[in-house]
Amino acid sequence: MVGFCFLSCEEDGIQTNSYSTYTPIPLPLEIPQLFADNILPPIIPINNPQTVEGVALGRKLFFDPILSADNKQACADCHSPENAFTDSDRFSEGIDGLTGNRNSMPLFNMAWNYDENFFWDGRTFSLEKQALEPVRDPIEMHNTWPNAMLSIQNHADYPTLFLEAFGTSTIDSTLITKALAQFERTLISANSRFDKHLLGQGTLTTSELNGFNIFMDETKGDCFHCHGNANNPLWTDNDFHNNGLDAIVTDIGLGKFTGDPADNGKFKSPSLRNLKFTAPYMHDGRFATLDEVINHYSEGLLNSPTIDPLMKAVNEGGVQLSITDKADLKAFLLSLSDDEFITNPAFQNPN
Amino acid sequence: MKIIKTILFLSLILFVTSCNDDDDKLTNGNITLNFTHNWDGQSISSSEFNTTNLTNANGEIISISKLRHLISNINLVKSNGDITSLSDYVLIDVTNNVTSIEIKDVPLDTYSNMIFTFGFNEEDNIDGEYLDLNSTSWNWPLMLGGGYHFMQFEGKYGATGIENPFAYHMGTARVDIGVFEQNFFEVTLDGFSLTDNTKIEIKMNIAEWFKNPFTWDLKVLNSNLMPNYDAQKMMNQNGKSVFSLGEIIQ
Predict the structure, then answer these.
(1) ipTM score of the complex?
(2) Please, are residues B58 and B214 in contact by the beta-carbon 8 Å criterion?
(3) With an 8 Å Cβ cutoff, are B165 and A216 in contact?
(4) CATH number of A22's domain
(5) Structure confidence by residue, pLDDT tens digits, B92-111
(6) Which residues of A touch B142 (CB under 8 A)?
(7) How far is CA A121 from CA A263, A333, B68, in A?
(8) Residues of B whose CB is below 8 A from A230
(9) Of the candidates A166, A188, A210, which is a domain's last residue?
(10) A128-177 pLDDT, tens per residue?
(11) Which domain holds residue A176?
(12) Hey, is the C-beta of A304 within 8 angstroms of any chain B C-beta?
């Protein structure tokens, strides 16, 4: 309420064109208890603190096709709330109907990506810089930044919203990406059935608990070395590995970015949260179902020079899980999905 | 459990402070601990990873792709038994070139030994206790006693083209389901005198992990070593000769 009054006062200020000293209201991230108890605090750049106005503006921009060249595609088209902020396509279509060779990525808990390497191959550092890419990517929103800035500058509402969020109504790509990043940092998912189990607020089935043991057992699934554990509730190491998808690596992933052949075929370990909503799987969306993913680790591994040593059973094709083990592992994986995350009203289209 | 740990930590600090207070005439200074790694004398850093072929005591050709290890309770001991604590724990990550720590405000004195623990001792190896270690997925599964890894040493062995992976991971040893045995060990190195900005090199000869007293056969012991009690205890034995004091640069 206080914020609202303050806002309306400011609007008077704008009419008289005086760049008054509107101070946006700080909006610290709501850090889930499991995260606070177990892992380091999130990364928030000093020059882009979270504010009520910044987050609201970022949310509006995220769902607004204004950033694309033909005014038809928003970030949310490929990063939709109902899919935990990815989409259900193998390769998403950009505005010209073109597709790339990478599967869209779900967006959540990104403020806890401590190394701040984004994309499947880690090629951009920081969420702010990442947000520059889709706008000018020829197979995505295929815009230019000068054009995107102009459209937003000429919009009826945006200049005021930028003034409120950043103290200036002169819009540029830096401020646009700052706002987007602020909204993206609020996309926090920590309320799965497994989370509730860890907090002592819910129970799991025997099958789910068995599945967790398979996940943690070096002689069975051995997934935890790359995909987190009960004390690392991100369910990813945010690091890059070759998990044995191909004998001949065509998309070299991290290797293209670092130039080190030892990195060829390495991609970021995705979080295993919200798999219920994020099919298809892997950097190229090659697996339509979780069963296919589990079969891959169980008997479908392919050797290549950079395969991770943790894919230790590669010469036998994989860790050879029994049918029950597979079913239990799948049940456990699905218990990491957070139904409230995808319906959270704060994350839906505000426009 | 977290509260207990905090109290322990605080009392440790107080203890160190009181030791230091005794020596009024001493000045304090900053020192650096440099953890270097070698293979029987050949220097190993991340730039040798993946590409350099090394031969172990059993005659297998190996290459390294990952090496991280944990060292805790790093103390300097004087001949009269006084102890100065340098660090509670440090995760050395050779893969990512995190191999040195700077320590401020150390009494510039003559020490008869440097003593540290490889891994965590029982009191410190508390499951989930350290947020920085959790954040980097350093945890050791509860079914194996919980707490943290002491080492992750990974790579491949065998001739080019037909390599097999190995994952030499060390932590608490599981005797039987629900029965665990501590697996840390203490390392005592020679002493030295400190002046301001002294750099102390602590060397790990990685080849020793495969050598002494047990000649490690990677064809038999290459993976699934975490729940393998015998393998864990062999690592413990072999680990005792890997560290030595290197150069002291003043």
Answers:
(1) 0.92
(2) no
(3) no
(4) 1.10.760.10
(5) 999 999 999 999 999 999 99
(6) 216, 230
(7) 10, 24, 23
(8) 128, 139, 142
(9) A188
(10) 999 999 999 999 999 999 999 999 999 999 999 999 999 999 999 999 99
(11) 6-188
(12) no
